[in-house]
Amino acid sequence: MHALQLMRRILEDGRLALQRHRAPETAPTSLEKALADFGNEFAPGGVRFQILVVGRVVTLRPAIQEHIYLIAREALANAFRHSKASSTEAEVQYLPSKLRVIIRDNGCGVDPKAVRLQRNLHCGLLGMSERARNIGAHFEISSRRGAGTEVEISIPSDLIAEAHI
Fold first, then answer.
1. What CA–CA distance (Å, rounded) separates 4 from 161?
2. What is the CATH number of domain 2-159?
3. Backbone angles phi, psi at 129, to 5 degrees
4. Closest CA to 12 of 31, 32, 38, 36
5. Which of 69, 88, 109, 165 has the fewest C-beta atoms under 10 angstroms from its C-beta?
6. In this predicted model, what pLDDT tens digit does every residue of 24-50 receive, in sequence order?
7. Structure confidence by residue, pLDDT tens digits, 142-158
8. What's the predicted TM-score (pTM) here?
9. Residues 141, 128: Cα–Cα separation, whole Å
């Protein structure tokens, strides 16, 4: 039942993302709140989920926030579904030169050779990489079997902030 709820939520978010492309609107919530809401709702029982925020929060351009959220949400969903972790966290770092979002878990990990060569990867991982590239972000996965996985998205500060007129 939990997996079905997760899939329904992801499908609905996809529909909303398509609608936003037709009629842009300001994101209703901050990136960290959206990630916290998703994590708190979908973390499996027995998995500790936390969100960490570092630095002074910046209002993100809505399109950038949407893409970063979708990448991070996919990483969280993968961790919840596949990692067998007891702990998962999302860290949002507002640094002077860039925004970094890191999703990490202490689960079973992913074959590092497959990650390095991008072979046998779940389509969602390849989609996250492509989405990051489309907005000028760097995307990296690091993992070792039995030692968890870390997904990092970083994007230069000059691409993220809303212009203040």
1. 35
2. 3.30.565.10
3. -60, -45
4. 38
5. 165
6. 444 458 999 999 999 999 999 999 999
7. 988 888 999 999 999 99
8. 0.80
9. 10
